Amino acid sequence: MSRRKPQLPSWLPIDPYILALIGTVAVAALLPARGAAADVAGGVSTGAVALLFFLYGARLSTAEAVEGVKHWRLHLTVLVCTFVAFPLLGLAARGLVPYVLTPQLSNGLLFLCLVPSTIQSSIAFTSIARGNVPAAICAGSFSSLAGIVVTPVLAGLVLGGSGGGFSADSLLKIVLQLLVPFLAGQLLRRWVSGFLVRHKKVLGYVDRGSILLVVYTAFSEGMVRGVWHQVSVVRLLGLLGVEAVLLAVMLAVSWYGAKRLGFGRGDRIAIQFAGSKKSLAAGLPMASVLFGAQASLAVLPLMLFHQMQLMVCAVIAKRRSRDPLPEEVDQAVPAEAALR
Length: 340
Prior knowledge:
single chain; mainly alpha
């Protein structure tokens, strides 16, 4: 008899992209970009992020955006989770310094709490869980657009001199790198949308590849400047524990808070996945502008949280996909009554 190959449990999500992120950090540690190579890598990563937000703009249908605006209560709930509840928890975590977190890691954790929500993973997990996908598309997009201004402003208010903070120059750089390409994508959508649909899979690699480039650039600079010697294994484990609690709290607040506000199942799913996650794609370029040479250490909490949220939300989405939809329950009740 042939033996079956051992398989990992279906509930354990192993995302190749997470392995790619870890591999990119390892490459940056062993072969960091220096001198002219660092300048080239920085320029390429900036262009890649601009391309990423151009694609975001080109993919968002104007009709979907207009329809999404009508669902303002849902989007307002997501924005409150992202830019009010998260920052308040980040400020509360300041009390863990210096017992659990170092001041640098605390700043990075607080920056994580200021970053806008994701777009792609919110849509993907909402779709898997059979939630309101159009709402997730609009919620993620609106959060990213709001974050272009809100994140640096909040960083200037709560981080102060700990990072580069808010300034007209930093805001201009972020707008040019993120908002302008997004708007360009919206303007050119009618001409490029067909191409994007036909090459959806290839462009997915562009999305993820651009983030890997930014990760490599940020961590290379950190290696060259020696900032990683400031973090011990014990501190990293403490950071992971704090982030696990942060994610659990926001998942519960977004799910049960949406229920308390009267949202239906599909909307609650969109709110939970859009309101509990943070965007690595938006956070990395913002950190490089706001924190400068300290960006690699500042984005470490965001990178760890990004991987954690993908794994946890993948499990939740799979479980939610097995829940009966309201219409299925309504159909099942008369059928059961007829059998009695």
